[in-house]
Design a protein that fits this description.
The chain is mainly alpha-helical and 234 residues long. It has two domains: 87 residues, no CATH class; 93 residues. It is 72% helix and 5% strand. The strands form two sheets. Strands 1-2 form a two-stranded antiparallel ribbon. Strands 3-4 form a two-stranded antiparallel ribbon.
């Protein structure tokens, strides 16, 4: 590629293709002020490479958030970092949460899922019915658990005592998963809001820049028309 198509970044001093550079005229005024503070050579004819521009954009966004909300939270800092690095925040929370599960977590989830299923209710109801029928009909005279089925009540109490903590552990994990999903949604929404705000500002700046160019062209047309009219009068 010829040197005529190369531009030098005012910040890092590297020469890159013009398609990888941004002219100073298209850089937002607040961001240009940050660049000028670090680079005294920054001027109307300067250029800046896209990585450095993204870095200053992130710095401007960080300052804006600090002014509006005070100290940045950890989530907001992650969003600013993603804007600087052009990272994608969208991810599958279920996959991330599954990777964190321990053996006890997986066991409690399976037990809780089985305990809340129709299969468990059917098997448990069948076992209770079989227990009662055996002790009342088949072993009526030598029943190992005659009416009022004290041993059965003890077994049921033990099952309930074991099942309750398992269900609570599963619920706690579900709450942690919901909290992780909420944090992820907040990061995605915050980044979308900042990107949209930046896009609107960029469009406004482009429209203003184009309007100035149109006014200059119109002024030149008026001057040309005046010059042509003066020639005709001669």
């Amino acid at each position: 590629m010829s040197r005529s198509h190369q531009k030098t970044c005012c910040v890092c001093g590297q020469s890159k293709p013009a398609s990888h550079m941004m002219p100073a005229a298209l850089v937002r005024t607040p961001i240009a002020a940050l660049i000028a503070a670090d680079c005294p050579a920054w001027g109307p004819d300067s250029h800046i490479c896209l990585p450095d521009l993204n870095r200053y954009r992130a710095a401007h966004i960080e300052q804006t958030l600090e002014q509006e909300r005070g100290e940045l939270s950890k989530l907001e800092k992650e969003v600013v970092e993603s804007l600087r690095d052009q990272d994608v925040l969208s991810e599958n929370i279920d996959d991330e949460f599954v990777e964190r599960r321990t053996l006890g977590d997986r066991l409690s989830d399976r037990l809780a899922a089985f305990g809340g299923s129709w299969t468990f209710l059917t098997l448990f109801g069948g076992a209770m019915t079989t227990w009662i029928v055996i002790n009342v009909i088949f072993l009526r005279d030598v029943a190992f658990d005659p009416y009022p089925f004290i041993l059965l009540n003890l077994v049921l109490s033990c099952i309930a005592a074991i099942q309750a903590p398992v269900i609570m552990m599963s619920q706690n994990r579900q709450e942690a998963k919901d909290r992780l999903r909420s944090e992820h949604d907040y990061r995605v929404n915050l980044k979308a809001e900042l990107e949209i705000r930046h896009l609107h500002a960029k469009l406004d700046q482009l429209m203003s820049h184009q309007w100035e160019r149109l006014m200059e062209i119109q002024q030149m047309e008026v001057e040309l028309m005046s010059e042509l009219a003066g020639r005709k009068d001669r």
